[in-house]
């Protein structure tokens, strides 16, 4: 093949090398607009895994690269006057300039033609397509090729919020990858610093845009900008200067990171690679790794597949998944740094943990493998904060107190609808269901949404709290749980609103009944869907009646013996229909602004708080994101909602999301709703519960240790395993969980199996 590689960075050079290694007869030219020794970054970070991949692909260049690596194992975080170090992270770095020279040398040895200082205007790319069999577009972040064929590649470029500048220094930071956070007169500024050769380190300086503007960095020359950064970080630089190699840029060289995605990576005989195809934020240091491993994959497929189109398809199928994984981790890391000022008041121990786990690629147990001593000290710190001085148990087994309710651990059995009630009365099914989960070790067990009136039912199978029969059935459960287990019980009360009079969950979710529908209420006459009935827009008499029904249900819950109460104001049900502008179309004092939309829900919540005993905690469940952008409730608004709930003496907010509209487009993933809990907790100081695709002890411990929530709710895992908490304890070899006495022989066997790395099946 005759191949043109546009761009002489790591992607273009290494693809050329990889193709020549597979077939020396390929005619390959690498075209680069800059000089051979120009480079506009400093260090490159790679992993041992990537080095092994390079060695398998081309042992000669891998050996030369390895000779120039600087290795380090530690991460140091300097924050609030304290330097916290953890180990076991296994990084290696090389200067970008050195890497390019080594790859250029190897490419020449293999017969690749290198053309430097050759600028290819966008309009000339069509000629290259005709001249060459294949055009590799590795022409970087601002790819002209991607722009030329944008209608085919469909790029999506998102400019991130923080400003950063890429500098270097002869202060080598040779003992650790170092993060430094400095509070200045204009706000926080932080640095990412790591060694990449014997006497030089990368030093990336980053800050929020308001801080950048307050300093006036945008109006400074490069020299003035560097001098300001030297002043900010003077006590960490040991008298060394900061340096820039962005000599081609006028001004201070600060930029915003652009996240690049493309719908397709190939068009005809043109294929994208490296930053031209996708970018990964520098805070996880994976851009060069992606480029090198993509080069290997494409070279493989061009020699294994029957034609070039098939090779492009295999390349994109394989690499896109890996790129998306890294971009997901990079997004998490990017957002953490963009919002870092909300975490800077955390204790240095928790702040360090939050930073280390920011991308979700490093978890609690992964940290234990990397640095067991540091993690054990962090766990002791967490337990001490919970009043459990001297304990070294995992965070999920720390006690927690809300008003006079003391929980034995932080695991919560989420509300999960059973649809097995008869005329609103919980049955033996409910007794067994909840009793089993209370015996299973969780600190707090929720009832499913329990309706405050017959008209407030979601389905005919939903339980209620509006008759003495209901109260008696719930009291039977509360008495058993309190007598036989250490678990506490929370009654979640609510009203279905526009989602009422629908089928059982295992029939057709949220669809109207085939017959026997009852009238429903909502903030406005907006149906849940075109198929659902139009609810009556509540008038003042309706509001008074429903408020009083919530109060009556709260009093019944107290008499039944519940330890905690939650008002359901999420998921499109009645109170949620007031909160979200998607369904609240009122033009009176209950519609429009957030203050108005919250007016009636707060009226109900305050009335419930007044009726609920002062020594018992009150929670409210909210949807923190309607998943429809600015048309609905956004995470920004959720913070304000939480502040209003705080003012209404709500003790903890149960932070869910979505289910408020059929238009919602959620972004799923592990722990996908936890960021909303994290934000509310760390911006308002209010206690929170995290929910949403949390299913491992590792998830629970990571969320708690990082300060992203105070309690962690698991739903489906508790449907699959009522004894999830006890089993999770055995899995992490925690022997302090209180098992029911008749089950202790099972506990002993499970613990022995866990020690041997075995399970039940």
Secondary-structure class: alpha/beta
Tell me about the largest β-sheet: 8 strands, mixed
Give the oligomeric state. Answer: single chain
How many angstroms does the end-to-end distance come to?
54 Å
How large is the radius of gyration?
Answer: 30 Å
Query: How confident is the prediction overall: mean pLDDT?
Result: 95
Shape: globular
| Share of residues in helices | 25-40%
How many beta-strand segments? 30
What percent of residues are in strands? Answer: 15-25%
Organism: Billgrantia zhangzhouensis
Protein name: Bifunctional salicylyl-CoA 5-hydroxylase/oxidoreductase
InterPro entries: Aldolase_TIM, FAD-bd, FAD/NAD-bd_sf, OxRdtase_FMN_N, YqjM-like
Domain NADH:flavin oxidoreductase/NADH oxidase N-terminal: 396-734
What attributes does this structure have?
single chain, alpha/beta, eight-stranded parallel barrel, 27 helices, 19% strand, globular
What is this structure's SSE topology?
Layout: E1 2-6, H1 10-22, E2 27-31, E3 43-46, H2 48-57, H3 59-67, E4 70-72, E5 75-79, E6 82-86, E7 91-95, H4 96-109, E8 113-115, H5 125-131, E9 134-137, H6 144-148, H7 150-153, E10 155-169, E11 177-184, E12 187-197, E13 200-207, H8 209-215, H9 222-232, H10 234-237, E14 242-243, E15 255-262, E16 266-267, E17 270-272, H11 287-304, H12 308-338, H13 348-356, H14 364-370, H15 372-385, E18 400-402, E19 405-407, E20 411-413, H16 428-439, E21 444-446, E22 450-451, H17 468-484, E23 488-494, E24 521-522, E25 536-537, H18 540-560, E26 564-569, H19 574-579, H20 594-597, H21 599-611, E27 618-623, H22 635-647, E28 652-656, H23 674-684, E29 687-690, H24 697-705, E30 711-714, H25 716-720, H26 724-731, H27 744-755
Parallel strand pairs: 1-2, 1-9, 2-8, 5-11, 9-17, 20-21, 20-30, 21-23, 22-23, 23-26, 24-25, 26-27, 27-28, 28-29, 29-30
Antiparallel strand pairs: 3-7, 4-7, 5-6, 10-13, 10-14, 10-15, 11-12, 12-13, 16-17, 18-19
Helix pairs in contact: 1-4, 1-11, 2-3, 2-11, 3-4, 11-12, 14-15, 16-17, 17-18, 18-21, 22-23, 26-27
Pfam families: FAD_binding_3, Oxidored_FMN
Protein name: Bifunctional salicylyl-CoA 5-hydroxylase/oxidoreductase
């Amino acid at each position: 093949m005759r191949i043109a590689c546009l761009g002489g960075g790591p992607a273009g050079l290494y693809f050329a090398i990889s193709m020549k290694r597979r077939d020396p007869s390929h005619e390959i030219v690498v075209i680069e607009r800059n000089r051979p020794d120009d480079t506009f970054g400093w260090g490159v970070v790679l992993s041992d895994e990537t080095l092994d991949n390079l060695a398998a692909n081309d042992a000669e260049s891998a050996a030369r690269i390895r000779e120039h690596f600087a290795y380090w194992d530690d991460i140091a975080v300097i924050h609030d006057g304290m330097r916290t170090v953890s180990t076991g992270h296994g990084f290696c770095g090389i200067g970008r300039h050195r890497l390019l020279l080594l790859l250029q040398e190897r490419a020449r040895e293999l017969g690749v033609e290198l053309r430097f200082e050759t600028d290819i205007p966008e309009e000339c790319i069509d000629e290259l397509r005709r001249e060459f069999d294949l055009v590799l577009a590795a022409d970087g972040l601002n790819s002209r090729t991607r722009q030329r064929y944008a209608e085919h590649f469909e790029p999506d470029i998102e400019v991130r919020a923080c400003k950063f500048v890429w500098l270097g220094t002869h202060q080598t930071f040779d003992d650790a990858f170092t993060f430094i956070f400095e509070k200045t007169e204009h706000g926080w500024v932080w640095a990412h610093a790591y060694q990449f050769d014997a006497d030089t380190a990368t030093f990336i300086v980053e800050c929020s845009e308001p801080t950048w503007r307050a300093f006036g960095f945008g109006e400074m020359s490069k020299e003035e900008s560097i001098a300001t950064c030297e002043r900010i970080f003077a006590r960490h630089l040991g008298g060394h200067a900061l340096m820039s190699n962005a000599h081609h840029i006028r001004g201070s060289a600060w930029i915003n990171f652009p996240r690049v995605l493309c719908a397709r990576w190939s068009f005809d005989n043109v294929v994208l690679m490296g930053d031209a195809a996708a970018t990964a934020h520098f805070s996880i240091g994976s851009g060069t790794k992606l480029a090198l491993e993509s080069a290997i994959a494409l070279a493989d497929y061009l020699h294994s597949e029957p034609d070039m189109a098939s090779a492009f398809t295999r390349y994109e199928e394989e690499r896109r998944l890996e790129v998306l994984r890294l971009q997901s981790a990079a997004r998490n890391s990017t957002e953490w740094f963009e919002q870092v000022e909300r975490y800077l008041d955390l204790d240095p121990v928790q702040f360090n943990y939050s930073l280390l786990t920011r991308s979700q690629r490093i978890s609690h147990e992964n940290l234990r493998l990397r640095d067991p001593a540091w993690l054990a000290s962090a766990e002791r710190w967490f337990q001490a904060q919970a009043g459990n001085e001297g304990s070294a148990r995992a965070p999920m087994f720390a006690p927690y107190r809300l008003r006079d309710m003391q929980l034995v651990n932080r695991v919560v059995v989420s509300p999960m609808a059973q649809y097995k009630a008869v005329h609103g009365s919980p049955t033996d099914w409910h007794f067994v269901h909840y009793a089993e989960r209370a015996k299973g070790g969780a600190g707090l067990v929720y009832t499913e949404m329990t309706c405050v009136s017959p008209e407030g039912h979601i389905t005919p199978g939903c339980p209620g709290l509006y008759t003495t029969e209901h109260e008696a059935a719930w009291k039977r459960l509360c008495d058993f749980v309190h007598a036989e287990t250490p678990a506490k019980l929370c009654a979640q009360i609510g009203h279905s609103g526009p989602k009422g009079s629908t089928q059982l969950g295992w029939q057709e979710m949220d669809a109207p009944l085939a017959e026997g529908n009852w009238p429903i209420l909502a903030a406005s006459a907006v149906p849940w869907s075109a198929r659902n009935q139009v609810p009556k827009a509540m008038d003042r008499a309706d509001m008074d009646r429903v408020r009083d029904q919530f109060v009556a249900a709260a009093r019944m819950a107290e008499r039944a013996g519940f330890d905690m109460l939650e008002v359901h104001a999420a998921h499109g049900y009645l109170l949620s229909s007031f909160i979200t502008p998607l369904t609240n179309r009122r033009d009176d004092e209950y519609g429009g602004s957030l203050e108005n939309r919250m007016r009636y829900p707060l009226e109900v919540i305050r009335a419930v708080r007044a009726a609920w005993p002062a020594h018992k905690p009150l929670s409210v469940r909210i949807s923190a994101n309607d998943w429809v952008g600015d048309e609905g409730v956004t995470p920004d608004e959720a913070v304000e909602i939480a502040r209003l709930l705080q003012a209404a003496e709500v003790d903890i907010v149960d932070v869910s999301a979505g289910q408020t509209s059929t238009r919602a487009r959620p972004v799923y993933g592990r722990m996908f709703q936890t960021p909303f809990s994290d934000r509310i907790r760390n911006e308002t100081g209010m206690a929170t519960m995290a929910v949403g695709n949390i299913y491992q002890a590792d998830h629970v411990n990571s969320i708690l240790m990082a300060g992203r929530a105070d309690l962690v709710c698991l739903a489906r895992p508790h449907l699959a395993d009522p004894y999830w908490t006890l089993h999770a304890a055995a899995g992490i070899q925690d022997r302090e969980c209180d098992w029911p006495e008749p089950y202790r022989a099972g506990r002993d066997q499970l613990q022995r199996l866990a020690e041997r790395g075995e399970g039940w099946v």
